[in-house]
Design brief:
The protein is an alpha/beta fold. The chain has helices at residues 15-27, 35-48, 61-69, 87-93, 113-119, 141-151, 203-212, 236-247, 249-266, 295-304, 329-337, 349-365, and strands spanning 52-56, 77-81, 98-102, 124-130, 154-158, 179-183, 196-200, 273-275, 288-292, 310-311, 338-341. The chain binds pyridoxal-5'-phosphate (PLP).
Length: 366
């Protein structure tokens, strides 16, 4: 019998989500965002320790709204990492702001603070600090907060990949800057299919986000508009799923950490594979990210053996969508050698053994 294909990532919904959705449909809810959404938002706020949480339709729009709530406007510059998912710069490009790409630290793939300092101009309005795979910058979040304060900038934390990850001082990633953002797209630790959330402790930002996502309404359901807003609302269908997924978060957080430990142990003698520095006490590796030699050949060999992988994000400045010049040695290396290995929470240890043995075989033969 042919071996089953091991995907690089799969979302995980179970009986609990099915039953909860069924119950919700029987209750006659309107599907639009209401009590289930509010309950999901409260669960995220409680888990992260944020004062406010607002769900939106995805983790790109959450960054757009977070930026608009910081009064970033067309023409303003925002510093973003050159290694990130393209949604990070696109979220501000959407309304005419200008992403300025800065290279990342080789150990964590988070923004290099020394390069950020050099990129600040009179036009700079914010820094978008992306938590790469749940990691935080080696320079520390306090240094970013200080830099943002001293330079009069907003600090926006793109924590799309970081639910379940904390800074060493115990604060959840996304809660330390002015505003933080999550994604619940299907590859994330928990998923609602599509979905995003904005968290903040700032009353003014919360006030603005609440209106921005709901047509600028001054109160639920009325048609009085004291500011411009749009429609970026969630649905209670997603809320119902999100509530069940949140109940499973802690188990998944632990499992993701075990998965990385298992990979590291099994691959420790392979010099052609290099892991990044992940603080497993505080952070949750969303994906298993590595730098590998012979990436394309290895990927092909794994696929022939029913193992899915995915090439890590190419440097954004070289994407045709942006195509801007600049020296970005770290993001260039990731573009050449970065590979995501299978990373789903539902991977069994025997799956990981099979993946690692296949990698071993490849490097013995090549
Ligand atoms: C760092 C980062 N920012 C933003 C996003 C966008 O989130 P969404 O796909 O929910 O729009 C992602 C999605 O993977 C991401 O990884």
């Amino acid at each position: 019998m042919k071996n089953k294909f091991i995907s690089q990532i799969e979302p995980w919904f179970g009986e609990e989500e099915r039953i909860a959705l069924n119950e919700y449909m029987k209750s006659g809810g309107w599907l639009t965002e209401f009590k289930q959404t509010q309950k999901f938002e409260k669960m995220i706020a409680d888990y992260t320790g944020a004062k406010y949480c607002f769900t939106v339709n995805n983790g790109t729009i959450s960054l757009t709204l977070a930026s608009l709530a910081c009064d970033i406007q067309a023409g303003d510059e925002v510093i973003v990492p050159n290694y990130t998912m393209i949604a990070t710069p696109n979220s501000i490009k959407m309304f005419g702001a200008v992403p300025i790409f800065v290279d990342v630290e080789p150990e964590t793939l988070c923004l290099d603070i020394e390069l950020v300092k050099k990129a600040i101009t009179p036009e700079t309005k914010a820094i978008m600090l992306v938590s790469a795979n749940g990691r935080y910058p080696q320079s520390g979040i306090a240094a970013f907060v200080r830099l943002a304060k001293e330079s009069g900038l907003f600090l926006i934390e793109d924590s799309a990949q970081a639910l379940g990850s904390f800074y060493p001082d115990g604060r959840h990633i996304g809660t330390v800057g002015d505003v933080g953002s999550f994604s619940f797209s299907s590859p994330k630790v928990i998923s609602t299919g599509q979905g995003g959330a904005i968290i903040t402790n700032d009353n003014d930002i919360a006030y603005k986000v609440k209106r921005l996502k709901d047509f600028g309404r001054s109160g639920g359901g009325n048609d009085v508009h004291d500011s411009i807003g749009y429609n970026f609302k969630f649905t209670d269908l997603q809320g119902v799923i999100g509530i069940e997924q949140m109940k499973k978060l802690q188990w998944r957080v632990e499992r993701k950490k075990e998965i990385l430990k298992h990979y590291k142990e099994k691959l420790k003698d392979i010099v052609q594979i290099k892991f990044f520095e992940q603080d497993l006490e505080n952070t949750t590796p969303w994906f298993i990210d590595v730098l590998v030699e012979n990436r394309e050949e290895l990927q092909k060999y794994l696929k022939e053996n029913n193992i899915g992988t995915r090439v890590m994000y190419p440097p954004i400045n070289k994407q045709k969508a942006y195509n801007v010049p600049g020296e970005y040695p770290v993001s260039n290396i990731v573009g050449e050698k970065g590979l995501w290995l299978p990373s789903s929470s539902q991977l069994a240890n025997s799956d990981i053994d099979k993946i690692c043995n296949t990698i071993l075989e490849f490097f013995i033969e090549n």
